[in-house]
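Protein in question filed below.

…
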Amino acid sequence: METAAIFHRPDSEYAYLYKANEMHIRLRTKKGDAAQVNIISGDPYLHGTKKWYLDHVPMKLIASTDIHDYWMIAIGAEFKRLSYGFHVIGTDSLEVFYGDRGVFPFEEKYLEEANTFFRMPYFQEIDRFKSPDWVKETVWYQIFPERFANGDTSNDPEGTLPWGSKEHPTRDDFYGGDLQGVIDHLDYLVDLGINGIYFCPIFRATSNHKYDTTDYFEIDPDFGDKETFKKLVDEAHKRGIRIMLDAVFNHMGMLSYQWEDVIENEADSKYADWFHIHQFPVKLDDSLTTDELENVGEVPYDTFAFTGHMPKLNTANREVQDYLLEIAAYWIREFDIDAWRLDVANEVDHHFWKRFYQVTTDLKEDFYILGEIWHSSQSWLQGDEFHAVMNYAFTETIEDYFMKKKISASKMVAGLNEQLMLYRQQTNEVMFNVLDSHDTARILSISKGNKDIVKSSLAFTFMQNGSPCIYYGTEIGMDGFDDPDCRKCMVWDEAQQDLNMLAFTKELIAFRKEHQQNLSYGELNWFDVRDNEEVVGLKRTLGEETLIAYFNQGEQDLELVLDNIPEIVIGHLTFSDNRLLSIKQNGFVVFKIN
């Protein structure tokens, strides 16, 4: 047994309070190295008198990756404090004790030392990571406001093009999408099954995407006004739909009054320290086009990426913090929004996000905070900054298997397990799972137009922990490559919609809602993974209900001989004949057993 591979870290995703008196403890070992892992635990003040270190309880192998196994146990403590260590038995019969001081031979003389054990000093309820329960029940729909629907032509910007008139929109195109257009189609979203809307930015800005904010306290006039937005929120809430807005706090637009003051007054501007400026002047050439500004290269101030029209904010400045926090509070307090999505969240300091968390959750206890982070995000997900991140690393693994054919079935499962083990269970339950967005090519284009693959990948995603999101138009078969092509106008002409995909999406969302408890809290078991046949079989079990799913990405039909005809919950390219269940290439089936 390779003892150097044994790993645990207290007060982290390896040891955390899941419920008020339920602690989850995980241990990592080298894949295939440990035959059994037992936990040894008890009250730290009773170590010598009760001698609880002589009692061992087996842990469960819950996940494996290419290189590691993960073991877990849920455990309580009578006095809300716990000392614990691990008895690891190798497949080679070697037995060791692993605790706070490292690895020792499994001998009683080492167990007798109280300080060799890890500690949870006290079950502090105030420190427990709490995620909003309503998010687990939510199926999101992402709207790029400029391209969803034009409900009020009176606010169309100058040069507005006829709706959908270009097959491939450019960065400078405007089509007149607005908030009234969303209000007009709320019942469409209800019929689809949606109960959460994620809006790309709606605040005053010059671009069509609005990520170059000029005034955070105003609705962009191209989209409407505050009265219209208030009506939208109220009408959405009446229909049971939550509202999440996009906060762009990493940078501002170059036409914001703060940046214009810096251009005019340079070092004497009262806003000079609001940004990261290296030298003056900072004014750019007025003749630069939008595309040139998007990749302007090196300038005398920090920016988002190399976009010269988006100067980066100095969030370490107390004035900047107070300004942004008032914005965060204003839209909750005045309009009752339910969530903030935080743009480029990983490039803003932790100190600011901790203040942000306190301000927003003080106003609304079940407020949802979602960070845009595309990589491992443990440091933001400790319970005092974000509840979740846009789970790109998780869903890209699904895309790599189903759509891009880059990895095997077992590699996908290993990748998904690795992501799940990065975070606490309550975090995984509210992760934001999106297969495409305004920042990526659409899944139909990634799938090279194969709608069977799209259906299978969506169904697979909807079966995972987290809160799934549909990018506007996916439900009717819209395509599009990378930005700006992924931001086409929503197709409202039914003759041009894929009504079969629409019906499937409704069925899939209904499936998710009906089995949400199992899909959020149920035990996940990858029980049948075949690389040669490209088959993935998984189970989700909660109480007496078990959902069994098979996904066939192989070239041959997958044939399952079952003792009884199962209750098929949802499926695609699946056929049953007596006890034979057949799944064609790119098909899937989910059935229930009790």
Q: What stands out?
A: The mean pLDDT is 96.
